[in-house]
Amino acid sequence: MKLVTGQQMGEIDSYTIEEIGIGGTVLMERAGIEVAKEVIDYLDDKESSEVVVLAGKGNNGGDGFVVSRILKERGFKVKTFLIGSKDDVSGDAKVNLDILTNLGILVKDIESKEDLFILKKEVVKADLIVDGLLGTGIEGTLRGLYPRVIELVNESRAVVVSIDIPSGVEAATGKVISCAVKAHKTITFALAKIGLILYPGADYVGELKVVDIGIPKEAINNKNLKVNLIDKAMVSKYLTPRRANTHKGDYGRLLMVGGSSGMTGAASLMAQAALKMGGGLITLGVPRGINAILEVKLTEVMTYPLAEGADGFLTSESLKEIEDLILDRDLLAFGPGIGKGEEIGYIVEGLVKKVNKPLVIDADGLNAILSLDLLKKRKQDTVLTPHPGELARLLGVSIQEVEEDRINVAKKFAQEYGVILLLKGARSIIASPKGDIYINPTGNAGMATGGSGDLLTGMISSLIGQGLSSLEASIVAAYLHGLAGDLGSKELTEYSLTPSDLLSYLPKAIKSIDN
After folding, report:
1. How far is CA 88 from CA 24, 61, 130, 463, in A?
2. Domain 232-514 is in which class?
3. 256 in helix, strand or coil?
4. 273 close to 454: Cβ distance less than 8 angstroms
5. What are the distances in angstroms from CA 196 to CA 133, 162, 172, 274, 513?
6. In what order do the strands lie in the sheet with 281-287?
7. Three-state DSSP class for 189?
8. Cα–Cα distance between 437 and 284 in angstroms, integer?
9. The pLDDT value given to residue 511
10. Of 269, 277, 257, which is closest to residue 500 (Cα–Cα)?
């Protein structure tokens, strides 16, 4: 599913109106009809219900005027309020405001703090509030009466249905600078807006429904949209059924390197995830001192004891061993639990320079990257899977700078260094060197625990070994990783969810896609 900013949606609307010839009033009518349907379905034709429609001065308010008219025609008790003056309404919104006036339907202007007392009385009584205050063009601090009106909505006991986007949420980023309407349901038109998916905006959306209002595909395709929401259909396209006449070699020969004293779990989880994800032959290279531990932990995964120093970490001698091992294997995953030994940076630099196979780097491997420019010279795919703190360190910026602009930071990094970047977090972002962005909607707070990321590294590596491109593998792994967490949290609880639980729910996640 393609995602858009408010500006992009406005350009699509303009193309539809000006180039294709579908009038703005037609689109507004269709939008209002779709919202009215949702309201009527919720109220279950209970005409005694009290409905308040809140309209702003723009097109979002115009949609609200259409909703008011349709509900009134169906016999519902509807009261409509315009935040501002009727004199300030123009364009298609003015057309629909005039229709209400011509039909004798009262629209009350709210222009002062005194008017807010009138509004509050009606909001308190309402069973359902339609939020048509502010649309997808809003950015920055809210001015005038809007903050107080939004507070009244959020303090009410009514069910709230937002038109296109909860008022106060920025469509491009999901930021809430002042305050925003806390909706129970949001009806958005044609395409979901990025701010409906990213946090904190996603917290205000409630149930999200994308409805068709007749915008032609030509108008959408004309924009060459780059931001995508990963969904089941996309994952199903990449996760194809296995052929009957195959053998273990068809599903990848993986070399994975990780672990150190006290961090054997990270390496173990990475390897087990690769196995559960369908990897064919998996070799886990670990410092020699912990090899015996991993042999006990792992039954189906082969282990290889690598050279280690007195501190128990890998050394420069390990690099030559890894280079030899990768020759007859399909890819290398490196990093989980590897620690911060003195020579880890040297090893990572050597791997980036010399491994002519796909390379997946995570955790301590990311922290050991000494020169990002070396990544540009690689001829094979490189996948980096940082959390915000790791990406901030690589870029030499603050974590806040990364978090405030996750999409653009990830996009710029992937394009500049020619890598697939999977920026982990609530709504993980996957960015490709071509500027394509994929946002993952699955996952929950129960996955915010040590070890979850190690599983993801193993899953991505496993899928690359099975023939998916590095980008496809990252998309599928991120979605299934989160889905396993969602399935686990439903049967267990987010408080108690562990990486081992994620492993046990991964087959169910895969099966739900396979079906």
Report:
1. 18, 12, 21, 56
2. alpha beta
3. strand
4. yes
5. 16, 11, 9, 33, 24
6. 192-193, 2-4, 227-229, 437-439, 429-431, 420-423, 382-384, 359-361, 331-334, 253-257, 281-287, 302-306
7. strand
8. 31
9. 96
10. 269
Q: What pTM value is reported for the model?
A: 0.95
| pLDDT in the model for residue 194 | 98
Question: In sequence order, what DSSP letters do the residues of 468-496 get, joined into one string?
Answer: --HHHHHHHHHHHHHHHHHHHHHHS-TTT
Which residue bears the tokens 């081992």? 500
Query: How many helices and strands, by DSSP H and E, does the chain display?
Result: 21, 19
**Weakly modelled stretches of the chain, pLDDT under 50:** none
Q: What is the pLDDT of residue 49?
A: 87
DSSP H or E run through 160 = strand 159-163
Q: What are phi and psi of 126, to 5 degrees?
A: -65, 145
Amino acid residing at 431 = A
Give just the sign of the alpha carbon dihedral 350, 353, 355, 358: positive
Give the pair of three-digit tokens for residue 269. Answer: 């989880």
Closest by CA to 285, choosing from 248, 247, 324, is 324
Enter the tokens of residue 501: 């639980």
**C-alpha dihedral over 480, 485, 490, 495, to 10 degrees?**
-170
Q: What single letter denotes the amino acid at residue 23? A: G
Q: How many CB atoms lie within 10 A of CB 143?
A: 8
- 2-225 is classed CATH 3.40.50.10260: yes
Q: What is the phi-psi region of residue 418: left when phi exceeds 0, alpha when psi lies from -120 to 50, beta otherwise?
A: left
Q: Where are the domains of the chain?
A: 2-225, 232-514
pLDDT for res 515: 61
